[in-house]
Amino acid sequence: MKLHKISLAVLVGLGTLASCDSKLDVSNPNQQTTATFGNDVESLEENVIAAYNHIRMEGTYARVGYTLDVCRGDEVWNSSQVWYMPFDDLNAPFTDEIGQWSWRDWYYTINVCNYTISRCGEDNSVLSETMKRIKGQMLFLRGLAYYNLTGYYQNPILITDYNTYSTLDGLYGTNSTYDEAWDQVEKDFAEAMTLLPSRDAGGQWAKGRATNGAAAGYYARALMMRHKYTEALAVLKDIIGGKYGHYELMKNYGDNFREGSAYENNAESLFEIQYLDYGSQGTDDEWTPVNTSPNATQGHAVESNFGPGDMGGWADLSASPWLYQLFKAEKTTAGSLDPRLYWTIGTYEPEWDGFEYGNVCYTVPMTADAPVVTNNNNGGLPIAKNTNLRTGLYDKVVTGLHCGINLRMMRYSDVLLRAAECENEVNGPTQQAIDWINQVRNRAGLADLKLADFSGNADKLFEQIANVERPKEFGCEFGRGFDLVRWGFFYSADRLQQIKEHGTFRRTNDKTRVKEPVSYSEVGVDPELKSSYDSWIQGHEFFPIYQGTLNDNPNLEGNSANKSESNANSLYGPVHPVVNL
C-alpha cells in the first residue's frame, strides 16, 4: 500500500510538473481585447447584435436622430418653441450640443461594424453562408450610418478600415467631400446586396434584420440623393419584380404604425428598427451608448416628443396646417376622408366616430367641443403616427424610452413612389409611373390619376409626387428633410417660397383655431403666425458639426452650416419649377 501511495504521489507530481511546462490558456471573458475577441462566428454574432443595438440609441433612431429630420421637413413644426427650436428654424449654432448626438452615436455604430468587417476578410467567395450574413449586415449598418451622417452633416469623416485605429492619428481623420461620402454609402449597400438573403429565403432569421431587399432599397435611396435616376430605377424595378423577396402594401395603412407581432415586420416593411412592446421592457432609460444597465428599456422616445401635453407627452412637435389641409382637399372614391389622416394627425373629425378606434386620444374620447392640441400654450395638431394616440392600447403617453412601436424606416410604398419619380425623371410621364402611384392611392381609396392629366409635363408629375403623394403617404415620418435637400428646394426662389408657405403655422392656445388654413402672406401681419423657413440661413439645410468635436480634432473642418455658406453650386441636376396642380 505504501508503494502504491508513493507511485500515486509520483504520478501526481509529474502531472504537476507537466502542467507548469504547458499552462492552460484561458481568456478572462471580462477582459476581452480586440486580439482575443472576434475569432469565431459566435463572438461576431455578438457584434452584430451590438451594432443593431446602437441604431436604437438617442442619436440614431430612439429620439433625436429620428426627430431632427422630421422637424427639418415642411410637414412638422416645433410647438414647444423650446426643444429643437434651432433645428426647426434651420439656424442651429455650432455650439448646440444636441446636434452632436447623432454624430456621436452613428460613429459608435461604425466602430462595431468596422471591427466585425475586419474579421471577415476581403474575399467574399470563401465565406460561409453564416459569415456572408454577418458581413452583409455590418456593411448595411455601416452604410446606414454614413447615409445618416452625410444627410445630416454633409462632410463626415470616412473611417472604414479598422487598422487605422492602431494609432491615435487614425482617429483624427479629415472631412470627406459630399461625393466621397455618398460613394462610400453606395459601395456598402451594393456589397451588402450580394451577401444578404432575401426576406423570403431568410425566413424567421430575416425578421428584424437587414436583408438584400433592405440593402437594395437604401441603395436606390442613396443613388437618388445625387439624381442617379437611371441606376436607381433599375434597382427599384428589381425590388418590385420580387428579385429581393416578396413585398406588398398592407391593406390597412394603420398596420404600419402599431406595436405587436401581428403588425411589425410585415409584408410592407423593407427595414424597421426593433423595439420591445411596452410592458416587456426594463425600467432604466439609457440615453447614451455608455450606459450599461441590465434593466435598460428597449423602446424609443419619438412618442414622447409627439405626444400631447394633456396626455403626458412632451408636446414638442406638431403636424403643419398645410399637411392637414392637403389631406382634407381630396376625398376617397366613397366620399370619405383619406384614412391616412386618421393615422397621421390626431384631430377630431365627425367621420372618425365609426372608424378604427374612433375619435380617441389615448383611449380618451375627443369631441368637436373638446379637441386635443399638442402644446397647451402654443396649440398645434398632434402627430398620431408612431404613437399610441390611435391604437387603443394605453390611456396616456409613457414618456422616455418606452414606446414599443417599431419604426418602419422603409416601406414598400416608398419603393413604388420612388420608382414613379425615377421613371418620370428618365422617361417623362408614362403610364408605368402613373400605375405605381395609383397602387399607393388605391390603398387609401383615392381615385386613379390619369396619364392625360400629366402628358408631356414631367414637372407637373413631379409636383404631384413631391407635394401631394409623398406628404400624404409619409407625413411626419423620417425622410422629408432628406428629400428637400436632394430636390434642391432651398436654392430655388420659387421652391423656397413654397416651403415657407408649407411651413407656416399658428401659435395659439385657442383650440378651435389650430386646424384653420394659414397663409404665409399673413406672416408679420398676424402676430400668431410664423414660418420655420424664414429663419433658414444658407448652408443650414444641413446641421453644423459641433464645435467641441472640431476642437477635439484639429484635422476636421466645419461644413456649410458651420460657415453659413451656400450650397447652390453643389446641386445635382436642375430643380423642378413650381407647378400649380
Automatic annotation (TrEMBL):
Matching SUPFAM superfamilies: TPR-like
What cellular component terms from Gene Ontology apply here? cell outer membrane
Q: Taxonomic classification, please?
A: Bacteria, Pseudomonadati, Bacteroidota, Bacteroidia, Bacteroidales
For this chain, the family text in UniProt reads: Belongs to the SusD family.
Positions of region (Disordered):
554-581
What this protein is called in its record is RagB/SusD family nutrient uptake outer membrane protein
Annotated SusD-like N-terminal domain ranges read 24-221
Which PROSITE patterns is this protein grouped with? Answer: PROKAR_LIPOPROTEIN (PS51257)
- Give UniProt keywords alphabetically: Cell outer membrane, Membrane, Signal
User: What superkingdom heads the lineage?
Assistant: Bacteria
Annotated RagB/SusD domain ranges read 268-559
Provide the protein's localization.
Cell outer membrane
Biological source species: Xylanibacter ruminicola
Could you tell me which InterPro entries the record lists for this protein?
A: SusD-like_N, SusD_RagB_dom, TPR-like_helical_dom_sf
Q: Where is the composition biased (Low complexity)?
A: 559-570
The keyword Signal appears for this protein? yes
